[in-house]
Write a structure and sequence with these properties.
This protein is 39% helix and 17% strand. The strands form 8 sheets. Strands 7, 8, 9, 10, 11, 12, 20, 21, 22, 23, 24 and 25 form a 12-stranded mixed beta sheet that branches. Strands 2-1-3-4 form a 4-stranded parallel beta sheet, sandwiched between helices. α15 packs across α29 and α18 packs antiparallel against α22. It is globular, with a radius of gyration of 27 Å.
């Protein structure tokens, strides 16, 4: 008889196989646990694809007995791909994280029992995204040699303060199970561990992984021939950066020419990147606009749901079906590139290139923003040091320094130490460049002079009488604008299929307004019949800010919205159950309809999605008044998005957009906050801190209640609590602070525990990046 999972308090895993890169151990442990508890199993295909060097070696070692012809079947059984350690862990990450999240929802602790040192075990588990999900207790190195023993289990239970009857032991071999029984815990066997490879080779796999991969990567380009040191050939799954490095880019002048931009309008940054001159932008201002399409998404998992990938692939697909299309994207920040999330160039065969350049320094726009922001800080402090003619209150300087890097140490600092000659001591802090008001001003300005005017209006501090002090008061708007004279020009790049893409500006959507520049979007509308653009994170953040801030300020009228969803993410929001997670998608569909814009859902298909699951999503979308279309642009490029492109064009032709912002300009700041909180997030109310009330009163006293609100909130939930998945109800939004961004023209509303300077993870992506003597970059996704 199966144990009742609701009565279990701890699951003890022997994860030693992960440390040895034999991912089938963990796969078997998870599958066995699911079957034992009678849970709906996650895609067995995903579980069977967990593999590392160890499994490959085991297969090789059996060839003499099993026969060469059995290798193909063995690899079907074991893996999507192998060889690269980093890639393997990327593949492990989703399945493991989903299972651990279920344990957490069920309030079950996970206990890791291993003979490896705690430091090494935590390192691996951190890579899998587990540390922040549940309490981990690791058996000390002295426990066990090759296998855990009863003493190790008892040690962990004692640390957790649990009885043996409240624990279940799973592992990668029956010796583990016997160990668990000896310790007095409930045990469950492992059906699909590495075990006896010869036995596995003799069995018929329940699922043919290769068939699913063939559907996802139908053109076969996802594999490249790799020659091993022993001279044997093997197929290797290549990474996004290898796909980009193997692509053939066209000279950017040819890309520009394809949409009517002459070579003399380009300012070249090498062969494959260029900025567009102001003179050319001015010359096309009277051309008719194309149709504007926004790509957004449901609330993402930590791995993201492929929004940029779908944006790029959809642009390629539109051109493939004969629709002249240009893409408009944001620039990546070095923070996530060196941190955990990754860059912003798409993935697989739906990428913009040159990928390495874009994800690193690109054309220097973000560095210019950093310099401009920090020039203002330097002028503020110098003004105070030189006599403080504006009587600035040192305790009320609202302007912070910035850096385009995740660095928690700089969130709160003391500046000006070292004596009178070195400045005036005061508390200060850094925010990440993409969260700065200079970034917002760049993205919302219509041209360089509009940028200068907006900079002059930026409030940087208050004087001792409580009156605002602006950049104009400090007379620094000219120098700041000078630093931005090149950065304000949009950048032209291309996709792998040579679709033109304007990439300009890069504010985060969880702490800023999350849209690329108005200049780039408007230029794209002039150069094509369709402009495909994106806004960051889920529709509750990026799309809301695109529609309520960017479109309002720039006079843009979107023709359609594409909402990206995946079965993986919907299961995440349903605690492992697809149908329970559909409400998250439903909320986003309903919200887009509130703006009067037709919406279509792009199901970003993963190799392990079943047709039943995909049809369930499609049927649900139809019940909400939106069509859902399966999309496979990651593995197939534009070809995999043609169905979506045709459906999108048909929807635009048949359904008129009656776009209007969610709220008018002439209501109070609080009314705007509460409208977004209730209508978009589904909150029952808003709770304001004392400081937030003071901030709002001050903004309205200055006569600026006419501005929209830019709400900083977690991206993982409709609420301001990342742990409330799905479509939560009966919650309040907590507002801690409200900041006036007078230059950008909105009020930034800080909610929950949101921060504007992220930190690095325990094992940041930067530790895996490298470059060789030939200049070849590795580890960049």
């Amino acid at each position: 008889m199966l144990l009742d999972i609701d009565k279990i308090k701890v699951v003890i895993f022997d994860f030693d196989g992960v440390l040895a890169d034999t991912g089938a151990d963990i796969a078997g442990a998870i599958k066995a646990t699911q079957e034992h508890f009678g849970l709906e199993p996650w895609d067995q295909k995903k579980i069977l694809s967990f593999v590392g060097h160890g499994a490959k070696n085991l297969v090789d070692n059996t060839l003499a007995e099993a026969g060469e012809e059995r290798l193909g079947e063995a690899l079907k059984w074991y893996c999507d791909y192998y060889i690269d350690h980093t890639t393997v862990h990327t593949r492990l990450y989703p399945g493991v994280r989903e299972f651990l999240e279920l344990l957490k929802v069920k309030k079950i602790s996970a206990c890791v029992l291993t003979n490896k040192p705690e430091r090494q075990t935590r390192k691996i588990l951190d890579e899998l995204g587990a540390i922040d999900l549940f309490d981990i207790i690791v058996g000390p190195e002295s426990i066990g040699k090759l296998k855990p023993d009863p003493e190790g289990i008892n040690y962990c239970l004692e640390k957790l303060g649990l009885d043996k009857e409240e624990a279940v032991m799973v592992g990668d071999s029956y010796s583990d199970i016997l160990t668990g029984q000896a310790a007095g815990t409930h045990t469950c066997g492992v059906l699909y561990g590495i075990g006896d490879v010869k036995k596995l080779l003799a069995q018929k796999p329940e699922v043919c992984v290769e068939k699913e991969l063939a559907e996802m990567f139908s053109d076969g380009k996802k594999y490249i021939e790799n020659i091993r040191k022993d001279g044997k050939k093997e197929k290797k799954m290549i990474t996004d950066i290898e796909i980009a490095q193997n692509s053939k880019m066209m000279n950017i002048a040819e890309i520009a020419k394809s949409i009517g931009i002459p070579e003399d309008a380009l300012e070249f940054y090498g062969k494959y990147k260029a900025k567009i001159s102001k003179e050319f932008i001015d010359s096309v201002k009277d051309k008719k606009d194309g149709k504007l399409v926004l790509v957004t998404a449901i609330n993402p998992t930590p791995m993201g749901e492929g929004k940029t990938t779908v944006t790029v692939g959809l642009g390629d697909a539109m051109n493939r079906i004969g629709k002249k299309t240009v893409i408009a994207l944001r620039e990546p920040s070095l923070g996530p590139v060196m941190g955990v999330k990754g860059g912003a160039t798409g993935g697989g065969y739906a990428q913009v290139v040159p990928m390495e350049d874009i994800n690193l320094h690109f054309t220097g726009d973000l560095h210019a923003i950093t310099a401009a922001n920090n020039l203002i800080s330097a002028i503020i402090d110098n003004h105070i040091f030189q006599g403080n003619a504006l009587d600035i209150d040192v305790g009320r300087i609202t302007w912070k320094r910035c850096l385009d890097m995740n660095d928690r140490e700089l969130r709160n600092i003391v500046a000006g130490l070292g004596g009178r000659k070195h400045g005036v001591p005061r508390e200060d802090g850094f925010i990440i460049t993409v969260a700065t008001e200079i970034m917002a001003v760049l993205c919302l300005s219509s041209d360089l002079m509009d940028f200068k005017k907006r900079v002059s209006e930026i409030v940087v501090a208050y004087n001792r009488s409580g009156e605002p002090v602006t950049c104009g008061d400090l007379h620094c708007e000219g120098a700041v604008t000078l630093l931005m004279k090149d950065a304000i020009k949009p950048n032209l790049i291309q996709t792998l299929e040579h679709t033109p893409a304007f990439m300009h500006g890069g504010p985060f959507a969880n702490i800023a307004h999350g849209c690329n520049s108005v200049i780039a979007t408007k230029l794209a509308l002039k150069m094509a019949d369709y402009c495909i653009t994106e806004a960051g994170f889920g529709a509750d953040l990026g799309a809301e800010k695109f529609l309520d801030i960017k479109c309002r300020k720039a006079g843009l009228k979107p023709s359609a919205v594409v909402i990206v969803a995946s079965v993986r993410a919907l299961k995440h929001h349903g605690n492992g159950i697809l149908k329970d997670g559909l409400e998250n998608l439903g909320g986003h569909i309903e919200n887009i309809h509130k703006y009067g814009v037709p919406a279509i859902v792009a199901i970003n298909v993963f190799a392990d999605d079943t047709e039943e699951e995909l049809n369930t999503v499609a049927d649900y979308c139809a019940s909400k008044g939106s069509q859902a279309v399966k999309t496979r642009v990651h593995g197939q490029g534009g070809k995999g998005g043609e169905d979506l492109a045709r459906a999108l064009v048909k929807m635009i032709d048949e359904k008129k957009s009656n776009f209007k912002p969610l709220y008018p300009d002439d209501i109070s700041i609080k009314e705007k906050i509460e409208t977004v909180a209730k209508e978009i997030y589904g909150a029952k109310g808003v709770v304001y801190s004392a400081k937030a009330n003071e901030d709002i009163a001050e903004i309205e006293k200055m006569g600026r209640s006419d501005i929209p609100v830019c709400i900083a909130k977690t991206q993982y939930s409709f609420s301001d609590n990342a742990k409330l998945l799905g479509r939560p109800k009966d919650f309040n939004i907590s507002v801690s602070e409200v900041k006036l961004s007078a230059g950008a023209g909105f009020a930034v509303v800080m909610t929950g525990s949101i921060i504007t300077m992220p930190g690095l993870s325990k094992e940041p992506a930067a530790l895996k990046l490298d470059i060789d003597e030939k200049g070849v970059i590795t580890g960049l996704f």
